[in-house]
Write a structure and sequence with these properties.
Largest sheet: 8 strands, mixed
Number of helices: 6
EC number: 3.1.3.25
Strand order of the largest sheet: 2-1-3-4-5-6-7-8
Bound molecules: D-MYO-inositol-1-phosphate, calcium ion
Helix content: 25-40%
Radius of gyration: 17 Å
CATH architecture of the largest domain: 3-Layer(aba) Sandwich
CATH class of the largest domain: Alpha Beta
Strand content: 25-35%
Structural class: alpha+beta
Shape: globular
GO molecular function: inositol monophosphate 1-phosphatase activity; metal ion binding
Number of strands: 13
Keywords: Hydrolase, Magnesium, Metal-binding
Enzyme class: hydrolase
Number of domains: 2
CATH topology of the largest domain: D-Maltodextrin-Binding Protein, domain 2
Family: Belongs to the inositol monophosphatase superfamily.
Amino acid sequence: MARTDKLSESVILEVVRKTFPDHLILGEEGGLIGDALSEYLWCIDPLDGTTNFAHGYPSFSVSIGVLFRGKPAASTVVEFCGGPMCWSTRTVSASSGGGAYCNGQKIHVSKTDKVEQSLLVTGFGYEHDDAWVTNINLFKEYTDISRGVRRLGSAAADMSHVALGITEAYWEYRLKPWDMAAGVLIVEEAGGMVSRMDGGEFTVFDRSVLVSNGVVHDQLLDRIGPATEDLKKKGIDFSLWFKPDKYPTDF
Ligand code: IPD
Ligand code: CA
Ligand code: CA
């Protein structure tokens, strides 16, 4: 497994370093490499959904997002879908101001405007801490009031699904920049909305994300927001993490 993650990252790095030798790169496997003062930061998850990959369970993905001064500028997520005997891929990509595409076709979030008619998705990190418990409770609450809450296991694919209009929203605590940099731009460019789980303005260095079709965003924040504020009151740290020290940002 780890071998596949590393192999995948090395193939991606070879291309990025050759094409953009003066950019900074943050890879999940290899950490930071390149020019620490570059305005460009590549965030690479060479295999998102490792557990799914190990079991041959759809889906998993490769996620690559590049930031310019902290803001997502271009991204792509290649999702491996289908499963044994019917694997295929779809490539979802976006550029800032240029829209979002899947296999070359423009994509758009759904128009569903009620949580009761929404299919929702969340994720649970490896650390079973207070935020994890809070999210188990959110999972229960939203299972009661929506069409269902799914837990697929690849954050980047989960966000692509919101952009494709298959699902209405996705949220998770404790993701890392390489999990989110590509997906958040894809959702925004597909007409959706991105915030932190307390409703605050999102950066890829934050520790929570809520992406949605935009229409149901505030309805979701009605419960997700206060639950997140309670965690903050308990002293759970949601401040920026994984931000390279010298990396210049516009926020
Ligand atoms: C994980 C997946 C999963 C999410 C976890 C991530 P990995 O990434 O995105 O869906 O729930 O929080 O860590 O470890 O498979 O690259
Ligand atoms: Ca990941
Ligand atoms: Ca990974």
